[in-house]
Amino acid sequence: MNSYSLQGQIALVTGADSGIGKGVAMVLAQAGAKVIINHVDAHEVAEQTVDEIKAAGGDAYAIHADVSNEDEVKAMYAEMFQQYGTIDILVNNAGLQRDSKFVDMTLEQWNTVIGINLTGQFLCAREAAKEFIRRGVVAGVSRAAGKIICMSSVHEVIPWGGHVNYATSKGGVMMMMKSMAQELAPHKIRVVSIGPGAIQTPINHGAWATPDALNKLLTLIPYNRIGEPEDIGKLAAWLASDEADYITGTTIFMDGGMTLYPGFADNG
Ligand code: NAD
């Protein structure tokens, strides 16, 4: 049982029909939030997540939108406001990888990753911030007028060859998050990032699908286990709650120690 509640709050989670987004949506719903499951893939998969949340006693609703498309993001917010009236929590989670050696990276691979991982977070955060400012703090719901949680990565600080577009997008998310936090704090809006390490989801299937791959991955994780979407979900729910009301403008890494330079553990 949580020592906090998100009862009466509306949460939008982007890319919530898979992996971390789904884990976050499940835990937010357990904490009492009504959760909007944004998805870009097949509607049936998102509806499965909605059904799982409802079966566990929560409330959820699926809305399709490509987060990198301004018109679709605006339409998603319009539909959410029609259904639920407002928004209290945005989890900017949707993201992908299009990996390539740097010299072979196409403009399409670059633009796709920046467009979804960075511009997508901008578009969704801007619409949320407008509504938070319009509505302000609602007494009895939350001490903040709104909370924005950006899904970053350890790769906002760890350079990643072969994934220059991805690491650049997460470095961008870090500075966007901090600048938004600075600008929006006077409106009682909190903006934070979560920096996951290796979490077992479809995005990194190749890194844990075989025992060899998993053992190699574990050499990068001092705590010696791969993370689960629910680990991130619990942190997101806590960050969204008033328990974390004095936290804004920072990244919380949840990575089993991946950012501790494990290569130096034995004198380097
Ligand atoms: P995932 O592939 O399971 O989920 C990604 C989700 O984003 C999917 O639901 C996908 O449909 C959605 N998505 C992709 N493009 C979209 C678009 N244009 N519009 C809306 N939704 C879109 O992967 P995941 O591991 O759960 O990744 C979630 C987030 O966590 C990403 O931002 C990723 O960069 C970040 N992350 C993951 C890890 C990890 O180890 N899994 C580590 C660090 C950061």
Number of domains: 1
Count of beta strands: 7
CATH class: Alpha Beta
Spatial strand arrangement across the major sheet: 3-2-1-4-5-6-7
Assign a percent range to the helix content. 40-55%
Query: CATH H level: which superfamily?
Result: NAD(P)-binding Rossmann-like Domain
Main structural class: alpha/beta
CATH architecture call: 3-Layer(aba) Sandwich
The hetero molecules present are: nicotinamide-adenine-dinucleotide
What is the name of the CATH topology? Rossmann fold
Radius of gyration: 18 Å
Query: How many individual helices?
Result: 8
Largest sheet: 7 strands, parallel
The SSE order reads: EHEHEHEHEHEHHHE
Q: What are the segments in which pLDDT stays under 50 over at least 5 consecutive residues?
A: none
Distance between the amino and carboxyl termini:
42 Å
Shape: globular
Q: DSSP strand (E) fraction?
A: 5-15%
User: Which whole number gives the mean pLDDT?
Assistant: 97
Characterization of this structure:
The protein is globular and about 55 Å long. Strands 3-2-1-4-5-6-7 form a seven-stranded parallel β-sheet, with helices on both faces. Helices cover 43% and strands 14% of the residues. The protein has helices at residues 19-30, 43-55, 70-84, 107-135, 164-184, 205-208, 211-218, 229-240, and strands at 10-13, 34-39, 59-64, 89-92, 146-151, 189-196, 251-254. With 268 residues, it is α/β, with parallel strands linked by helices. Nicotinamide-adenine-dinucleotide binds at residues 14-15, 17-21, 38-41, 66-68, 93-96, 116, 120, 151, 153, 196, 198-199, 201-204. Nicotinamide-adenine-dinucleotide is lined by residues 14-15, 17-21, 38-41, 66-68, 93-96, 116, 120, 151, 153, 196, 198-199, 201-204.
